[in-house]
Write a structure and sequence with these properties.
210 residues, alpha/beta, seven-stranded mixed β-sheet, two-stranded parallel sheet, 11 strands, binds adenosine monophosphate
């Protein structure tokens, strides 16, 4: 499969975060002696799988599964998201790919992770928020007991910002629990859907935009 070759090349590159002065960083210790740097946005673009008409006709689904399954892709995305979340007391990952990203980022920063679950998965009491998706509606929940979020700085992490309803709902949940949310960080932002307008005034940082 052609994309397999394309993905394989990422394994010999060193990837960079978005916050270097010129967006690039020289490779360190390339096994083959090459010093070929690639931006995190390039890695995301090269590994993201485009799935037309999923889960409904008209939706161009951006599947980041191959990014997370690639060790360099996961490392690059984790490092870049951790730079954004640096200073947080807690990372909150949104169901479900946000769990993977949030756990990796939290571990890198030496802090904890909160899973923002889909509705009906957590035992009561819960904070619950129902919202509109690019396709359909959904409910997000966080525990209403057992975790003291009051006054804690919590950075939201998810894979894709589409219409912004998911991140906005997550922010509302965290606010209801008393947390401060300084920023939301996503891997990929679909700018045509104006998600950051819906999330405002909460700031959104994305590693790649389409
Ligand atoms: P939204 O609330 O519209 O911003 O949708 C964001 C959430 O839905 C994220 O958790 C994504 O996983 C998922 N999502 C929505 N649209 C897409 C898309 N076009 N490609 C991939 N994931 C999407």
């Amino acid at each position: 499969m052609g994309r397999g070759l394309e993905h394989g090349q990422v394994g010999v590159r060193t990837v960079t975060g978005p916050s270097e002065p010129d967006g690039r960083r020289h490779a360190e210790g390339e096994p083959d002696g090459r010093r070929h740097a690639e931006s995190v946005a390039d890695v995301i673009a090269s590994l993201t799988r485009e799935v037309p008409d999923f889960p409904e006709p008209g939706v161009q689904f951006k599947d980041l599964t191959p990014v997370l399954a690639d060790r360099h892709g996961l490392a690059a995305v984790t490092r870049a998201l951790a730079e954004i979340a640096d200073g947080a007391d807690l990372v909150a990952g949104i169901d479900a790919r946000g769990f993977l990203l949030g756990g990796a980022v939290a571990n890198r920063l030496g802090i904890g992770v909160l899973a923002i679950r889909k509705g009906g998965k957590l035992p009561p009491p819960v904070f619950s928020q129902t919202y509109t998706l690019e396709y359909g509606t959904a409910t997000l929940e966080i525990p209403g007991d057992g975790i003291d979020l009051a006054g804690r700085r919590v950075v939201i992490i998810d894979d894709v910002l589409a219409t912004g309803g998911t991140v906005a709902a997550a922010a509302q949940l965290l606010a209801a629990a008393g947390a401060q949310v300084p920023v939301a960080a996503v891997v990929l932002e679909l700018t045509a859907l104006s998600g950051r307008d819906k999330v405002a005034p909460l700031a959104v940082r994305s590693l790649q935009t389409i």
